[in-house]
Specification:
The protein is α/β, with parallel strands linked by helices and about 500 residues long. It has helices spanning about 5-15, 195-200, 205-210, 220-235, 235-240, 265, 365-390, 405-420, 425-430, 455-470, 475-485; strands at about 35, 40, 60, 70, 85, 95, 110, 120, 135, 145, 155-160, 185, 210, 220, 245-250, 255-260, 280, 285-290, 300, 310, 320, 325-330, 335-345, 350-360. Strands 1-2-3-5-7-9-11-12-13 form a nine-stranded mixed beta sheet, with no helix packed on it. A five-stranded mixed beta sheet has the order 17-24-23-19-20. This is Amphoterin-induced protein 1.
Length: about 500
C-alpha cells in the first residue's frame, strides 16, 4: 500500500467513528435508517445531511429529530417520483434552497415544523403542485414573500402557528388570490395585532370554518367581537373549538387582557350579535346563499310555502343556481318568510335558515317618500326662519320718527288696541289723528273736476292743502267711525 498523507488517515479514522450515513454516505438500511418496504425512517440518528442513494421507490422519508441545518438543492441527485411524505421537523433548519423540491414534485405531505426558519422566499414551494398538507408551525418566520406559496393549487391545510408573523396574509384566503382548495389555515400564536375584519366577513363559511387566529395580541374593539360572535352563532369550528383562546387587550395604561366574547358586557358594551334578515323591495332580485361550512355539498331549498326547490323544479320567480344559491325575483310580497337550505354530502349534513322580508313598495316609491319628507322638513325650517326674521328683524317705527318723538311711543299700544277693537273707547278716541290714514272711498268735488268732468290734479292739490289747514283739529271719532262704516266718505 502506498503511504497516505497524515490528514487523509485522520479523516478516515473520524468517519469510521460516525454512524453510517451521518456524513452523507450511502443509505444503509441496517445501521443508519430503518427501511420497511417503501418507508425509510432515519429519525433520531444524529444526521447532519441527508443520506445519498435513496431508492427510487421511496414513498415516505422520515428525517425528523436530526441536525440537518440546511436543505440544499443537491440533497438528492435523482428524481424520487413516488415520494409522497417528507418529514424534516426538529432539525434546527434555517435554510431551504429554492431548488430543494425539484426532484420530489409528487409530495403530498411536507413537515418543516419546529425548526429555525425565519423567512419564506419567493416561489419556494412552486414545484409542489400536488402538496396537500404543509406544516410550518413552531419556527421563527417573520417574513413571507407573497409568491412563496404560488403553485400550491392542491394545498388543503397550511399550519403557520407559533411564528413571528405581524401581518395577516389575507392574499391566501381572499377571492381571486386565495389557494383554491385551502380549507384549514392556522396563524394562531403569532404577533398579529389587527385583522382585515371587512374582508374576513365576505369569506365563504367553509373558509371561515377552518380559519384559526386565536392567541394573537389583538386590540379590543366591537368589530372583532361582532366577527367572532357571528361565527360562533353559525357554529364554525374556528370560533367554537377555541372560544376561550380568543383574547384582546383593552385600551388604557393597564393593558388588561380579556376574552373577546366578553366585550358585550361591562368592558366595552358592544351590541349583541343577531342573524340579520334579508330585505328586498317589490320587483327586485334577491340571491340567498346556502353558506355551508363544508365544500362540495348537494343543496336543496324549501320555501316558506313548504315547496322543495331543486334544479328540476325551478320556476321563473324562484331559481336554484349552479353554486347552490337560491335566486328570487322579481320579488313579491308572498315571497316573504323563512327559507331553509339542506346541505348534504356522503358523510356530513347541515341545515341553514334565511329569513326574507319583501317590502310592500318599490324602491323608487321608497325614494319618493324620502324626498317628500325631506321637502316637508325644509319647508318647516324655512317657515321658522321667516317667523324669526319678522319678530326680531323688522325695522323700528316710533323711535325713528322725528316729529312724533316720545308721545307717539307712549300712545302706540292704545292706538293699536283701538284699531283692533270693534267699539272704540273714549280714551282711544282722544288720541292723535294718526288713524286718519285709513283707506276711504272719495268722490271728487266740483272743485276737483276739470273740463269734460275730468279730475283736475292742480285743484286736488289745492283742496288737500286747504283741508290740512282748516280741518287739522278734526275729531278722531269721525275717522275711526269711518273705518268701520260701510258708507264711503265724501270729502
Amino acid at each position: 500500500w502506498p503511504l497516505l498523507p497524515l490528514r487523509a488517515l485522520l479523516s478516515l479514522a473520524f468517519l469510521a467513528l460516525l454512524p453510517a450515513g451521518a456524513a452523507g454516505s450511502k443509505l444503509n438500511c441496517h445501521r443508519t435508517c430503518i427501511c420497511a418496504s417503501n418507508i425509510v425512517s432515519c429519525s433520531k440518528m444524529n444526521l447532519t445531511s441527508i443520506p445519498k442513494a435513496l431508492p427510487e421507490y421511496t414513498a415516505v422519508l422520515d428525517l425528523s429529530y436530526n441536525s440537518i441545518a440546511r436543505l440544499r438543492a443537491e440533497w438528492t441527485t435523482v428524481k424520487l417520483p413516488k415520494m409522497s411524505n417528507l418529514l424534516l421537523s426538529h432539525n434546527g433548519m434555517s435554510f431551504i434552497s429554492s431548488e430543494a423540491f425539484l426532484y420530489v414534485t409528487q409530495l403530498h405531505y411536507l413537515d418543516l415544523s419546529s425548526n429555525s426558519l425565519q423567512q419564506l422566499d419567493e416561489l419556494l414551494f412552486e414545484p409542489l403542485t400536488q402538496l396537500e398538507v404543509l406544516l410550518l408551525y413552531n419556527n421563527q418566520i417573520s417574513q413571507i414573500d407573497r409568491s412563496a406559496f404560488s403553485g400550491l393549487r392542491s394545498l388543503q391545510k397550511l399550519y403557520l402557528s407559533q411564528n413571528k408573523l405581524a401581518r395577516f396574509p389575507l392574499e391566501l384566503v381572499k377571492e381571486k388570490t386565495r389557494l383554491p382548495k385551502l380549507g384549514l389555515f392556522d396563524v394562531s400564536y403569532n404577533r398579529i395585532k389587527s385583522l382585515p375584519i371587512q374582508e374576513l366577513k365576505l369569506l365563504p363559511a367553509w373558509i371561515k370554518n377552518g380559519l384559526y387566529f386565536h392567541n394573537n395580541p389583538f386590540a379590543c374593539d366591537c368589530a372583532l367581537y361582532s366577527l367572532l360572535a357571528h361565527w360562533h352563532i353559525r357554529r364554525l369550528s374556528s370560533a367554537v373549538d377555541f372560544k376561550d383562546d380568543y383574547t384582546c387587550t383593552l385600551p388604557g395604561p393597564q393593558k388588561t387582557t380579556v376574552n373577546v366574547f366578553e366585550l358585550n358586557g361591562d368592558y366595552m358594551n358592544c351590541s349583541a350579535v343577531k342573524e340579520a334578515d334579508e330585505e328586498v323591495y317589490l320587483d327586485q332580485t334577491l340571491t340567498l346563499r346556502c353558506d355551508s361550512r363544508h365544500r362540495d355539498m348537494v343543496k336543496t331549498w324549501v320555501t316558506p310555502n313548504h315547496e322543495i326547490v331543486t334544479s328540476a323544479t325551478s320556476n321563473q320567480s324562484v331559481t336554484l343556481l349552479a353554486n347552490g344559491s337560491l335566486q328570487i325575483g322579481p320579488a313579491r310580497v308572498e315571497h316573504s318568510g323563512l327559507y331553509t337550505c339542506y346541505a348534504v354530502s356522503e358523510t356530513l349534513n347541515e341545515t341553514l335558515y334565511v329569513s326574507v322580508k319583501v317590502h310592500n313598495a318599490t324602491l323608487q316609491a321608497g325614494n319618493d317618500t324620502l324626498n317628500t319628507a325631506y321637502t316637508t322638513l325644509v319647508g318647516c325650517l324655512a317657515s321658522v326662519v321667516l317667523v324669526l326674521i319678522y319678530l326680531y328683524l323688522t325695522p323700528c317705527r316710533c323711535p325713528c320718527c322725528p316729529r312724533n318723538g316720545k308721545a307717539k311711543s307712549q300712545n302706540e299700544d292704545s292706538i293699536h288696541s283701538s284699531t283692533l277693537s270693534a267699539t272704540p273707547t273714549h280714551d282711544a278716541l282722544g288720541s292723535k289723528a294718526g288713524l286718519s290714514r285709513h283707506v276711504a272711498f272719495v268722490e271728487p268735488s266740483k272743485d276737483l273736476q276739470g273740463q269734460n268732468g275730468k279730475v283736475n290734479p292742480n285743484a286736488e292739490d289745492e283742496q288737500e292743502r286747504k283741508r290740512a289747514r282748516g280741518q287739522r283739529k278734526r275729531s278722531d271719532a269721525e275717522s275711526i267711525s269711518s273705518v268701520f262704516s260701510d258708507t264711503p266718505i265724501v270729502v
